[in-house]
Amino acid sequence: MIRIYYAKSSVFEQENSLEDLLKYLPTHFAERALRYQFSQDAYNFVLGRLMLKKAVEALGLPEACLNKISYNEEGKPLMEGISFSISHSQDLVACAFSATGNIGLDVEYPRNIERGYFRHCFNDQEWTLIQEDKSSHTFYQYWTQKEAILKANGLGLAHLLDIDIQNVNLAHFYNKETATQTTWNLKKIAFEESAAYACLCTDLEENISMEALKELDSFI
Description:
single chain; CATH 3.90.470.20; five-stranded antiparallel sheet; four-stranded mixed sheet; globular
């Protein structure tokens, strides 16, 4: 079972300061949170780590695991016993996790963009479909799919063109460094009435459970 926790950080921010939330996390998270230039980014970071703490507890892992997070060369956080992915956009924060497999989650609220700046991120077929769509739907569908795949593989944006999206449910990723191709399942995720685009990428064939967290008591 893949589980997803999600919340609106703006709701929590009305009643809880950043310092209040940091009391429930290891100090190394506080050090990272305080590096953010904008307060909402810091708040989203902390809320995401509180979700991770809850995920660790849900899987029956010791809380001490939170002190043993490592990072790969691309900066992806890793923890023994759990596959997880945290994403946020505006005030929407989400954390997907599982005890097995690899997963990646990307959440994006649509905004006004200059499409031409993103031409290098898509192959010719994808770009044609993006240009034919006068709305931003095709762009954000592809973008969240690609970002989710990169997160699942622990890689950065330089690998965007190594992704071959077959359809809304399936994609292949070719890793040039290892000369291997892997297949990934894509799941469109909807957060209640949110306008955000979201995609979960996984190499698992499992059901997905979603839980909205609306009170601080649901974290601690």
